Every structure is written in C-alpha cells, then in structure tokens.
C-alpha cells in the first residue's frame, strides 16, 4: 500500500505487504467513503504453478442478499480514496479509515501523540474506554514521504455489525508527513505475515471468533464520484457485477499478488511481455509500474508531462485507446475515460504512475482505477482473487 501527500495528490509507498481471513453467517456490507489516494509497497518472488481450482466456494451459496448488513453514509472526495467509519472502544469512538489490501495492520492516532499530524485527526482517547488494554510492544511503518511510530493496544473494534473483542491494533505516538490526509487511520486486509506490529489482523480475528460466514471479502468501488461503494465480508453479492467471476490463483499464499500475462494497446504488447507480477491494491489510487514502461505508455496515449503528472486534452478523452490487461487468459480493458481524472484546475491527467519499487522482475500495482471497473473478490480460503465487470 502506499500513501500520498494529500496536497500533492501523489501516492507514497508502504514498504510492506500481505493479509486476511473470515467466518460467520452473513454478508456484511460497509459502504465506503471515497477520498484520496493511498498505496503500498510490496515484495514477493517465487512463482508457483497453478493453484487448485477445486475447493471453490459455490457462489450460489455465498452470494445472496437479504443478509444482515451494516452500512454507513458515503462521502466521495475526488474519486481517489474510499473510506469507511469504524469504531474502537467502549463506549465506541468513531474513526475514518481506508480498507487496504496492501497492508495488514489497523492503526489510528492516539492521544499520546503530540505530532502536528495527529492534532489534525481524530485521536483515540484511551482513558475513555473501559475495555482498553495497553501493551509494551512498539512498531513503526515507513512510507515514501512519511512515517509513523506506534504502540500495540487491545480493545473492541466494530466494523458495522461485525465486532472484534480484545482486538490488537496500533496507536500512533509519532506521525510525520500525514498532516493533510483526510482519513484518521488504516485498516489492513492483507495476510498476517506482513503485519508490521505482529498483531493478528482484524479479518483473521473475526474469522477466529466465528463472526464471518466464509473466508472471503469483496470490493465494489463506485465510479464518477457517485455514492454506493461497498466492501462486503463473508460472501459475494452478485448484484454488483455482470457475468461470471473469473478466478485467478495467487502466486503464493501470503499476499494478494497474481501473475499478469501482458499489457497491450490496440493488440500490440507494450509491457509485461512474457508474464509479470501484479498486486491488487485497494490502498493505491492509480495503476503503477516500472518507470520506462509507464513512460512509454504515456507516450503512446499522447500524454505530456507537467510536474508530477502526465496530461492529455480533455476533449480527447473519449478517443484515447483502451489499455488491455491480460490476466489468466482473460482480457480486462481499461478505457480512456476510466484512466483519466481531472485535477483541481479541471485539467485531465492519466492515472498511470511509476512505481518507486525496483524489484528484479517486472511488477505492477492495480489500484482503485482497476478495481472500479472490475468487482474484486479476495478469497482467503482458496488463495485467489475473483474478477468480474462491475455494474
């Protein structure tokens, strides 16, 4: 996952990746509020063969409506980040967080924190919670242009109707570079082994407590600054996508990284020739890849650099070519209107960015630009990702 300075509209990379699991008898949907960008860094090597397609959950059994659901009012800011409310403590204290598949830790600012960034966000008041328990374990997370240090604590955490008691989470005691971000903290949905704090992620804790019916969660991200974005736990609501879900095995269990077979424009392969790796990251706003390949992509669509972005004429957006991402034999087109956003001056810029990572193999990050188009299911039980055209 990565963070970007809100004022610069640039995402910043986390240097960590992976985690999540579940168990209960309802799909819980939490409308997300869209705000700015966040992303992450990743690591991952060792490619594996095909993952078993057996043991698949029958979607007819886990895809249903009329189940219990928890929803919150949505707020959409700039088509860049999707946020939801959670509460921590007894009585509950409310925070706005980003649900991030690129990290595994849950953290919010603490009232121990004296950094200017903390004073601009909601801070957890530990003395006001009767179920709070502090530990002496500390941790830190570094971002591309910011960092935090924190301490691990335990308390009751609620995601709508989902309740995790004695949930370990992070309380920041120092924050640098996060003064202008519009959310309070992060709720990681990656695998446990990349947790910076070493704490069990909330998804796994909910699974262990029997709070989620199946070990899956899914994202529907609304388009064009509309409301209606949803993250659902424990199942899949087929009303949010068209056709069938196409399942893609993870390269290995432990992070949301898959094989991608090519990236093409007008039937010509322009990147990922002969296969590469792709990380499906709800904490990243854009699509990121190696600088030479991204620069070539910008050139092919006629985008001109200006500052940290590449711009095109807004009148040409509907004529821009689709970028085709081929994954597991299926083409996933991203049309021009989907990869162009407007800045505060109304100028149109592309949502392709160079990744700060320099792995030994070609690596791409498929962020919210991609997930907006394709309803995405994260299946912890079978270590795979499901993709289908979003409604």
UniProtKB/TrEMBL annotation:
GO CC, alphabetical: extracellular region
Pfam families: A1_Propeptide, Asp
GO molecular function, one term: aspartic-type endopeptidase activity
Ranges of residues in domain Peptidase A1: 82-388
Active site residues according to the UniProt entry: 100, 281
Keywords of the record: Aspartyl protease, Disulfide bond, Hydrolase, Protease, Secreted, Signal
Compartments where found: Secreted, Extracellular space
GO biological process, one term: proteolysis
Keyword rRNA-binding: no
PROSITE patterns: ASP_PROTEASE, PEPTIDASE_A1
Primary residence: secreted
InterPro entries assigned to the protein according to its UniProt record, in alphabetical order: Aspartic_peptidase_A1, Aspartic_peptidase_AS, Aspartic_peptidase_N, PEPTIDASE_A1, Peptidase_aspartic_dom_sf
Cysteine disulfide links: 113-118, 272-276
Family, as annotated: Belongs to the peptidase A1 family.
Protein name, entry field: Peptidase A1 domain-containing protein
Protein's organism: Bos indicus x Bos taurus
High-level lineage: Eukaryota, Metazoa, Chordata, Craniata, Vertebrata
